[in-house]
Amino acid sequence: MRSAIDAVRRRPARSALTVLGIGLAVGLVVLLLSLSEGVQASASQLAYSSGVDLIGVSRGADVTSGEFPPLPDAHALATEIPAADSNVATASPWLIDDLAFGNASLRGAALNNSTPAGWTYTVSGTVGWIPSDNGGLEVPPIYTGTGFTRPGDPHYANGSYSGPSTGQLVLDQSLANVLHVGVGDPVWMSPDEPPSNASFATWYANATRFTVVGISGPFWLVPSALLGFVYLSELQALTGGGTPSTDYASLVLIHLNDPSNPGADLGRIAPAFPSLTFVTLGEILSAIQHVVDLYRTFGILVGAIGVVVAALFTTTVLQMSVDDRSRELAVRRALGATRAAVGRSVFEEGLLLSGLALLVALPLAYVGAVALNRFLLGLVGGLPSAFSFVAFDAPVILTGVVAVVLLGIVAAAAPAIRAMQLPVAEELRAP
What we know:
- By secondary structure, the protein is α+β, with helices and mostly antiparallel strands.
- It folds into two domains: 2-46 and 287-429, no CATH class; 53-258, no CATH class.
- The protein has helices at 2-10, 12-48, 74-84, 104-111, 173-179, 200-206, 232-238, 262-269, 281-324, 326-334, 339-379, 394-420, 424-429; strands spanning 54-58, 88-103, 122-129, 142-145, 168-172, 186-190, 208-216, 227-231, 251-256, 276-280.
């Protein structure tokens, strides 16, 4: 090892460039792996803490696509699914749609025909649910306000849709900030968007007025969306439903008393509801894992290219080192050093360079991971506080260590063979 240290020390510039090249390549591999690990771990953590064990959608719909055809008889499912399986604690129907939102300031300007330039409505996602029937599910926490004050779904009125509309609306904090509203403020909502600023007054006349009763945190199911939450029947009424024949939802979230064997519960529920498709949380996570694996494979390929380039560069540097030290190596051979000892010294130089590169790669990868995580969290708003895009953990670090060791061994192989095959007599006679 002393010979390797001397070789590195005698050529500081070349050694530093080699260390930096290896460090950048391995650091890129570690960074890409930490990204895939972080997304997978955070998605799994959110899913398992959600309380959702099964999800029901319309027959043939793909849960992972985000497209949900209407699911009929939504309110009835809240009681019919638990009746079909005693292990079901909660069956919560949810309707998800995009609506246009407008605040009081925009309304006042529109009524006065003085809408300032740049002022416009906001299109955002809206969830219709039965707030009191979400037991066991992790729903957005209310930061300020009372939240929904009426149990059940008052306007539904056992299927007659003749009950009172509460007009209550909960906004997540991000959407409340966009609309510049707080608890107690009015918000107008409509499934139709105004075609122009000149039609704002007409749009407000046809939109439905709601009152903000709570500001909530983000929602794990649609973490990057700006969301509003209303009673299921009231959203149905806005989107063209709200009658016994149009009691639609997008999906039903199911929480089990004992979630240890959701496949067994699926087997009991699915035959009772042939018009629906049910999937377990494990199946959803498998789909997420498939997507993450694709990104991981792409990242590995990109990283592998970098590692190969670094290995070739290191091989070239070690080859130059052998050429520069050819007389020294010949003298060692003449003094009794074996071929294996000479080759080992070249391997040691390669491993030393790689080891020094590891001291560069891991800090660079860590700093890059922290910076990338902050950037992505700022880019994708509304994520839970526990979400992290990167995971700089032991398996990722171990991968970096293994990559460095293998790179050093592979890069040193050809130069070591050359060193062992140097013609001793010719090198000693050379001027």
